[in-house]
Specification:
Blueprint lengths: L22 E5 L17 H39 L2 H26 L2 H10 L4 H26 L1 H7 L4 H13 L1 H18 L5 H24 L4 H26 L19 H28 L5 H38 L3 H28 L12 H33 L3 H26 L4 H24 L3 H12 L1 H26 L3 E5 L3
Parallel strand pairs: 1-2
Helix pairs in contact: 1-2, 1-8, 1-9, 1-11, 1-12, 2-4, 2-6, 2-7, 2-10, 3-4, 3-7, 3-11, 4-7, 5-6, 6-9, 7-9, 8-9, 10-11, 10-14, 11-12, 11-13, 11-16, 12-13, 12-16, 13-15, 14-15
Length: about 525
Amino acid sequence: MCKASPCKCDHHDDPTGLLTHPFVVVEVPSPGAHPVLPAKPLASEKGLAFVEVKAILGLSLPMVLTGLLLYCRSIVSMLFLGRLGDLALAGGSLAIGFANITGYSVLSGLAMGMEPICGQAFGARRYHLLGLSLHRTVLLLLSSSLPIALLWYYIRPLLLLLGQDADLAAVAASYLHASLPDLVLQSFLHPLRIYLRAQSITLPLTACAGLAVALHLPINYFLVSVLRLGIGGVAWASVWFNFNVVLFLILYIYFSGVHRDTGGLSLGKECLRDWRSLLDLALPSCISVCLEWWWYEIMVILSGLLLNPQATVASMGILIQTTSLIYIFPSSLSFGVSTRVGNELGANRPDRARRAAAVGIWCSAALGLTAFSFATAVRNVWARMFTGDAAILELTAAVLPILGLCEFGNCPQTTGCGVLRGSARPKLGANINLSSFYAVGMPVAVGLALWTPLDFRGLWLGLLAAQATCVALMLVVVNRTDWTAQAERSQHLTGASAAKDDEAENKTAAKAVDDTEVDETNCLLVTVKIKQ
């Protein structure tokens, strides 16, 4: 039957209502209707870049604050170690270095495998994948913690086998034995951070870290000074800190309802299947992180082989603490860029992903220039906060400008790693780190430090060569990225392409039904809109 109003249909008086000829329905806008306006012109590229800067900084700045809070935590721990005496400080430092090399770097690197999956899944609105990735990564880290825990448990005979002092080995073993529960907590902490960060939830991370840091000082005082638990008390305080952060994050996720759209917090059978995509990303990410972490530990070992090992090792400790402080800023920027790139690729918006990567690189260049200026400006006063030894002061002042140049390259390089993580290409990052740090940087560092008068400065010039190579390769890779192809890869990684195929099939079926109904009525309807 004809459903047009009498004023709009010439065939309304057809008594049968069976219209066998095409007809036209003319829609005349009412007198009070607003005219159709032309579309607004697209925003300029500069305006879009400014919007992207705001988005990246909105993610990165809370992460900077979180990093600074965690840095304060480590300072508190070192202060309480120092109060226990030189042996406790040396043994604790040895244990922390060993834990970083064999445990924390591995868990941190493996957890990075879920970052591109979560970021792209959130952009593609495949929210259940975030929950699955969280559960799978927690299980992966827990299983990886077992051999690490076994290694830590038997650390004392291993250190003695390597020629360490017996008392020093005993203190380090005590610290690591007390830190064993931390492996379980780290297995939850890293995935929870990435799970929230992929959804652009960063302020709660900062709030939870701040609350835990506020409790860290009294907990250390209680365990070390009141209960007199010694070096074990310092280790347990660090474990307690991570327990508090994990607890606060879980409480936030539960009461905020973030978990509802992502499949909840309880494990299901589905998280025990389809691990290949996670492992393909987690293993290269782990290798990439470990290669970079291990480099600095190797630098400490090499500094002990130089002309004045006591001064060079002490200066190396000060400089590594300095790089750790500066690194908070590019790493936070890297997290923000990774999230933005992943979200946009998941949403199948390659142009926006490209813009996020470009804006992130430019921001990192400005950050690198700031880091270089800072390191150069404080070269004559920085080491005085740690020591008054003339030899250490001289070495540190001579190397700080080189360190600044290293950070000038490290900032874009770290952001480039974030771009590769966000676009699910950790293998490229691992290959770049391997070739830059160990094929270029290591030979240069060893050659200049041991076989030329440069001595301690030669080690850092080797790092500078590694950073220069790394940033050059990163920029080439990012510049040559086919963002359309990466967006297509993202659709396959998140399963969005399969979902779209199903949706297209449903639409095709619905259209076929509609066409059948039209054929039955043999009616062709044409709508013409007349603009005022």
